[in-house]
Design brief:
Elements (H helix, E strand, L loop, with lengths): L2 H9 L21 H13 L7
């Protein structure tokens, strides 16, 4: 890999001006899977199934 390809790969991770990259997916990790399932079931029971 030459230096131009390296620079292109590294700079591809820099967001455009005014954009923010998402770094935290904590609600969707395996540790929170049960909490999310219970929340979805609760919302379905209340008739808010469009969020599932």
């Amino acid at each position: 890999m030459d230096y131009l390809e390296f620079i292109a790969r590294v700079t591809s991770y820099i967001p455009d001006k005014g954009r923010v990259m998402v770094r935290d997916y904590s609600l969707y990790t395996n540790a929170h899977r049960e909490k999310m399932r219970k929340a979805q079931l609760s919302m379905a029971a209340e008739g808010q199934s469009e969020y599932m």
